[in-house]
Here is the input.
Amino acid sequence: MGFLTNKKALIVGVASNRSIAWGIAEAMAKQGCEIALSYQTQKLKKRVDKCAALCNSNIVIECDVGSDLSIEKTFTKLKSHWDNFDILVHSVAFASHEALDGNYIEVTTRDNFATAHDISSYSFTALAKAANPMLNDNGALLTVSYLGAIRAIPNYNVMGVAKASLEANVRYMAAALGPRRGIRVNAVSAGPIKTLAASGIKNFGKLLDYAVNNSALKRNVTTEEVGNVAAFLCSDLASGITGEITYVDSGYSVYDQGPNL
Ligand code: NAD
Here is the structure.
């Protein structure tokens, strides 16, 4: 029996079999969790259907997190399958391609700043608001962050600022949802992984290689590894953890190569 048996999770953010959300869905399903998935646009539905099949799920719902109406419709549809659920995973980010290439001051605009924050941070709050009436007591919310939230990483630019907002969001949401119903809110901060979103960041391949050479484990992480930690954080095994950012990055964020002694 898996440690998520009798739990139900809605996972937002599968776009391909490389998506971190795909790894999270598979890891949760392996632990006995019932899964519902959402897709951003019709174009992505076929791939999300594949993920659903692997997770023994037939719940696949459209959701554009940039639209309150779309979010509302998503939960109306979810309600036709489930009266309530336990886990919400937000594995979503967006910034325009131009914003992720070059000098931060030069490439950041009022527009791309607002969009990055809306889709990559506020949408977590928006989903939590809409999910709240259906969420069971002691439920868990989880999002996916990156080290760019706390360090200035070349080309990550406005996405790093949005991730800093997302991480603060985790803490405020934990404080807002914890007291009455024991709902926990956490993030995993993943090391670099080659996904569709990551390919929008200039020189991402170099970042992957750099992370191998400068991490304690001397390798990149996999979506399966991120998924396993996400599954743990959303389970009752992690009942004492909330408002936390947990790094799944081969130890990159705590490692310093030091001088060549
Ligand atoms: P991905 O491209 O597979 O997933 C990004 C998802 O965001 C896609 O499913 C896309 O459809 C969704 N999305 C974007 N705008 C949306 C909208 N308006 N409505 C609904 N969905 C929308 O890439 P990924 O790397 O798996 O990204 C998932 C999360 O992991 C993101 O928050 C990303 O910043 C984070 N992350 C990625 C890495 C990495 O190196 N890949 C590292 C750390 C954190």
